Protein 1
Amino acid sequence: MGRSHRASKEGLKKLDQAFKIKGKTQDYLAGAVGCTRQTVGKLFAGRPLEKRLFQALCHELNLDWGDIAELESEEDPPGLRNMNTLEKADQILRWQESLSSVAEKPNFKSSKKTYIIITVDGDIENFLNNTEAREAVLMATKSLSGDMSIRTERIEEGSIKITFSGSPQGLKKLEELYNSSNLTEIEGMSIQSVQLFTEEEYKHHLVEEIKVDGARSKNLSDAELSNVDLRGADLRGADLSCADLRNANLENANLENADLNCADLSSTNLSNANLKGVSLHDAIIDGKTKIDDKWHEVWKILNQETFSADLRGANLSRANLSRANLIEANLSRANLIKANLSRANLIKANLSRANLLGADLLGADLIEANLNRANLLGADLLGADLRGADLLGADL
């Protein structure tokens, strides 16, 4: 299992219900567990979260995280946790009957993780937008393999390339069915190829794919990429949320607009990496992480106490500071050209003479902020709260 949890379909319903009962805001939840509002939003969107934060948020909502998380089960089909004894027995019987055409159920006690990539014909956009189709394919792979722990890791172009993780025995069974021509389609979609990987082989496969084709906008959420060499790699817009990048070499890599929320960057080399627009909420950085001063400052703003922070003259151009807490911060003469300050808390912040050319201030809280002589040309102020703000001499 990776270093994150995500809510299951049923878990999301329980989260929504508990949130309504709690009667608090997402900002409150974020403050209660020491994370960002953006991270709380990811919980309710069913995206991966670091296990510690996932469990803490569930606890704050008076929920058992085990009932919310989409877990890899070794025994029961999905949904059995909430069934009574008779319902569970009936469901297990149905599940076993569905496996009658498959070999005896393997023993799935191995802790090793295996991956399989099944490429099928079809329109990827339609598939991504069809939740029922995706769930049907997942259940079909579980039934055919006899492995109810299988989960979908990522879906990519080519035509539709679906990566599953599961037990070695279960995924090996799928490969054997395909090689013996007993598995030629899945849910009406013709299978083009089936590739089976051990955990290390899959890691190597990912790295080589990134080096050759780049990973622009690629879904690498929760990926295990520790100790890899990706110097100079094109990772623009890649989803690396909760990815394990410990001790990885990303020197000179292009990570513009990538999502590194909750990623583990301990001892990672990010020297000279392009981190424009990168989201670093809840990312882990330690004393051995090599990161340029500018981006280390951005990380600190997002993840450490910043009340009344002294950021006079700071170079924060193109930094992703969305939802940052900058209340009463001194940002006079700061370079915030094309910075993302959407929904940031800038109450009573000093932005006098700051350069906010083309900055995104969508929904930002600028109550009583000092914008005296600030350059706001081309800035997006839609929904920004400017009550009591000093705009004397500001260039709008």
Note: Residues 72-110 have pLDDT under 50 and may be disordered.
Protein 2
Amino acid sequence: MGNDRRNFIKQTASLAACLSIGDISRSSATTVYSKASTDKKAKWPVTESKDTPKIILNSSANASTANMRLIKQFGVDYVLMGGPQLPWTESRLREIIEKFKAEGLSVINMMLPTISDIIYARAGRDEQIKNVQDSLVAAGKAGLPIVEYNFYAHRLTEGYYDIVGRGGSQYLAFDYTRKMENPADNKWTYPRARSTEEMALSPKELQPKPNIGTYTKEQLWDNITYFLKAVIPVAEKAGVRMALHPNDPPVPLSRGSQQIMGSFNDWKRLLAIVNSPSNGMTFDCGVSNEIGEDPLVVLDYLADRDRINHVHFRNCTVETPSLKYLEVFPDQGNVNMFSVMRELVRRKYKYGLFAEHPRGNDLDQKIGSDFAGYLFNLAHARGIMQSVLTLQQEGKL
């Protein structure tokens, strides 16, 4: 061993004698200098611009000044919220928008309240459609770019249940075979989740709600077609984009009713009803994963047609597509969140990006809120976006 070490030292000394240390230093410095001079340099801080996604947080339209200040303090410039009761008026929307603007926040998205008469083709459908049309006109005049909505016959929240995640946090699981008559029974008593034995239930099909009944897919397609043909031309003229959120959970049957927004083919069919960017969707990479699709393939399809009008940015792991999956922290799960953000930036998507579905944690439990969970999601999304925008500035995207 001693001889090997001495021989190594001698060989190293001979090598050093053959080379000029000064020449090595100059050569290395020249290489580094040359590379630095040819690479583009990103300018920091890297922030959203008119052609990038806009990271947003949710808020109540009745938020206090303190609530709005808190949102702003964490670097968020955009918010979304549920809209007022129909019909919206320009004066009411301006009142809300101006209140947030005074605190440096832009309202980028409002959700329509439940449009049951339209979904179920009830007697008041045409009146409700007129209210939506008037609301879209008001939104355009007030400067609200996005109006989001849902179209569920019934949302099977009865299949959700909570389980313990990393560090005792709360994950949200879904199992289509585990349907509970009372959705409240799915809730855990923090911080203890129920045991497997406590959660064990025989699969059963839940009865339809008496106030809803049952609907076939074609009935619902007829109803949404009637709705979209009436409102999309109004939205387009008003300069407003509508974003339909896909079914979540994306189950085939919910209390006896089929669902029309639970598959990629369904989403394609929706876009074909009225060919307009105002007839768009909320691209949810989590739901895209839940149904067994590649979120990037879904993103490309929607972006090619300019139909991404809102984004939900979250992650999950999938056991059985559409039937059994687990919502986890955004840094876990099957979705490559970096690739999703990279493609949104590359496509110059410029509307809201909501890092939603925060996981339960001890801090939020203590303060009676979900704000800490949202901040984690926000920071994760902001870090990825800044990384992608940096690569873009350096010409490496």
Note: The radius of gyration is 26 Å.
Protein 3
Amino acid sequence: MKKLIFRKFILDHTKFLFSSLIIMSVIIWTIQAVNFFDFVTEDGHGLKVYFFYTILNFPKITHRILPFIYFISLFYIIRQYEIKNEINIFWINGISKLKLAKELVFYSFIIMVFQILIGSSISPKFQNDARSYLKNSNVDFFTSLLKQGKFINITKGLTIFINKKNKDGTYSEIFLEDSLSNSSKMIYAKKAILIDDANIKVLQLFNGKVINKNLSKVNIFEFEKIDFNLNNLVSNTITVPKIQEMKTSHLISCFVDNIKKKIEFVVDCNKDIKTEIKQELIKRLVKPIYIPLITLLCCYQFLYSRFKTNFNKKINYIFFANFLLILLSEVSLRYSSKSNITTFLYLLIPFVLYVIFYLIFSAKSKNA
């Protein structure tokens, strides 16, 4: 009977937790997706690239908000059990407040492992896939970015300026600077026509000059018509993998000065980068240990009856304490990698707080 009661509580919380997590992640993802639309409007990527890039960033959002959603969901479920008097079923069946708190803390370790799994494996993998997708994509929407009176430099090594866009779709007075190859090239044309279809993207230039500069030599020639190929242009979007996108095993290898040649990312493990790697490893592997502590603080609701006059005040204190705890884990993370002392303190603080809160809870539960 006791196991059935506890399973129902866990089931109620798990349903509420993951439904809330998905809803909030979708809301944040939607807002972030609007910001990512710059890949189309400014960087010239197609809608397919934009869609896949935003989708692959979804696990990162889930990882970031999981601790806060877990706290809200657990706090809410305990509150609802108290309001509906369902919490009394535990006490009637001989389950003590301390026993229930221990069971919930044990359950929170499963959530903690889930958080570590997302942060150390799933999220970096998906972010790296998103970066690789950008790296291997072409500038599909380049033609829509050509605007009059504006320098266009969304592609690597190429700058285009168009003085006027005519009503018939042609362009007047075009300037191009091309440094895609070892030599640089400047082109001026009085008129241009853009040919853009599924197989070819070409800017046809009429009546102009080309200035080729190769080392110390400069060649100038005039033309009546030339075609400037726009296929396979490379976007200026950053395609170098960030630390957040690297495998946890690579970060650990870098941190312990054990870089293997088979590592696919070139990383200079100097002192500065090691500090960032250390912080990233702490965020992935250590920060989730605050989840059991959050669980124990939420369990303090068991100690107070809703029929007492100061019940709402006590509940508000518990909510505020949990909020401060989450805030502490976020703020202190920034300083956790500054030195060995700060790292040690970041590791020590949650364990010390857990022992303190557990002893207080144990003492109060005997008199509650």
Note: Confidence is low (pLDDT under 50) at residues 259-266.
Protein 4
Amino acid sequence: MARDVLILVPGLFGFGSFGTGPGQIAYFDHVSTRISNFTGWSEEQIVVHQTGPAEPLAWRVRSLAAAVEHALSGQLPGVPEVGRVHLVGHSTGGVDVRLLVNSQYRWPGATASASFVSRIGAVVSLSGPHWGAPIARRMRGTLEGVLPELYLASILAKHNRFPIVESLLFGLFTVGSDPGKQPSAHVLRAMGQLPEGVAKDVMRFLKRIIDDHGLIHDLTPLSMARLNSAVKAGECPRVKYYATAAPAPTAFGLLEQGLKGEALGAAFYASSERLARPDPSEEMSFPRGPWIGDRASGSQATDAETNDGVVPTSSQTLTGDATAIVQGDHLDVVGHYPSQRFQGNTLFKSAANFDDDRFDALWRSISSELTAGE
């Protein structure tokens, strides 16, 4: 009997998982479990696509096309016969899934009409930078050299190793990166704080980031505007857009988080949130759509500068209409938040107050899109 399969697609610097067992770090943390609970699907039907972490957009889409064909060919363990493939992409993964079903977009080696498109079911974008991310424009050049350090800091924060994160960031911003295409000395020292299996996987991953980060240039607002114009006629109306928004940091909020011992994460988020704000020439209207879960009255601005710490909320839909909006930062929504149900943490300490109830509400809503045609 044919069964449905869901492919989860990570974003920029995305991965499947590092290591195994209790020390494992997953990009979509506990997402598969929640989807399985809400849909009744086995976890064998839910796979995470291993895309290039920062390779150009066209190569990412080509890789996703190959993953879909692989699933439909019956080669997935435990799912020998596949009826439909559903796609949920987070961040740049949301752009990947949207372009895969765009009839005008061509990835390297693509034919005029991919035969598998008719067997793709739900297509969901979560926090996708469809009109680009100003942070990508600002990261080009000097900041590209420190990407491995920033990424490793995020990984270590997920492991609840904030003393090591503080040391890493101190070394990064006071000493700087070592020259050459090798991880810097303070990165290598920090690696020793991770479980052996995780450390090996992370090191391989960091070297890939150093060797290829062309995606950053593809995701600037100007580049995405040009792409959107070129493929406008081929957009698929079935794509669902879920948007994320977090309150802008305030002086009082930073002080409050500092008193809780979260000063580093709060400062890191505040810096990222500032870099994510669009310039006046890039501003668009906040999207229209219902909110998911609770949202404290007056706690959330809905203007052109509102973002989730990485992507402007206004950039997360194509036409300004969102299937739903959730109060959360860019990492909250894929399970990187202080959960009471499972070990969860993040370097981002936003004021979104994302919690288990909102996590469930978000993924219950997305799950309903996956099962709508059953």
Note: The CA atoms of residues 4 and 336 lie 27 Å apart.
